[in-house]
């Protein structure tokens, strides 16, 4: 078989303390998974079934990095998130078995063109244009699961230019890792290389060119992202 042009390079993320790379297949994101964030976005925080949206695999970018301020927006927002890397595929995974499918964990930022997302909500259109743009998923090196202290509790935080903006605990997830991954596997067959961004706590806000974002999840990883000039 011949391709009509060379295939794109394999999207991949760094592995902590290693020269190895984690090949990325798909990026799934969980929406409204912290009650306080649901409230700040004007939504009901009741424990409704989790819902998902996606980013392309090549939206991921290693950190530390500089990400250009994207086009078509005047309201670029940060959303700090615990990130799960899948190492073993499967469908209809039981919550009790989810841990056997996880290769590692990290921390990432779901960059969002909030003005485009608000327009999409108002017009009942998909969120893709607001979420799935170039370099919209900066992610720290992935920590192998054997070195992850917990996926059930631990501080998650984000600061802009040294000022704390988001500060919570992953214990506050409405749908914990075992449950939302099990639910996701009911709708799609998960595969090695899938990345799951698990939702953001309250405190999201806008950034401008020149801002420096730092953040992390205790015991799992830290990141730094600089917002560059407009693309």
From TrEMBL:
GO terms for molecular function: hydrolase activity. Keywords: Hydrolase, Metal-binding. It comes from the Bacteria. Residues 27-227 form the Fumarylacetoacetase-like C-terminal domain. Gene3D superfamilies: Fumarylacetoacetase-like, C-terminal domain. InterPro entries: Fumarylacetoacetase-like_C, Fumarylacetoacetase_C_sf. PANTHER family: ACYLPYRUVASE, FLUTATHIONE S-TRANSFERASE. This is Fumarylacetoacetate hydrolase family protein.
């Amino acid at each position: 078989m011949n391709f009509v042009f060379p295939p794109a390079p394999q999207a991949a993320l760094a592995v902590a303390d290693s020269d190895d790379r984690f090949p990325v297949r798909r990026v799934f994101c969980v929406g409204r998974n912290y009650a306080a964030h649901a409230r700040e976005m004007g939504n009901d925080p009741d424990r409704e079934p989790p819902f998902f949206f996606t980013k392309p695999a090549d939206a991921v970018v290693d950190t530390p990095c500089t990400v250009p301020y994207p086009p078509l927006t005047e309201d670029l927002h940060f959303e700090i998130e615990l990130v799960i890397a899948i190492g073993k595929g499967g469908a209809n995974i039981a919550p009790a078995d989810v841990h056997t499918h996880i290769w590692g964990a990290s921390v990432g930022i779901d960059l969002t063109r909030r003005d485009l997302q608000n327009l999409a909500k108002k017009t009942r259109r998909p969120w893709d244009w607001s979420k799935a743009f170039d370099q919209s998923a900066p992610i720290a090196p992935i920590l192998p699961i054997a070195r992850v202290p917990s996926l059930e509790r631990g501080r998650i935080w984000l600061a802009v230019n040294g000022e704390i903006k988001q500060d919570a605990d992953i214990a506050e997830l409405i749908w914990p890792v075992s449950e939302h991954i099990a639910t996701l596997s009911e709708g799609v067959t998960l595969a090695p290389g899938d990345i799951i961004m698990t939702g953001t706590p309250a405190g999201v806000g806008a950034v401008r060119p020149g801002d420096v974002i730092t953040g992390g999840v205790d015991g799992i990883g830290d990141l730094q992202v600089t917002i560059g000039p407009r693309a």
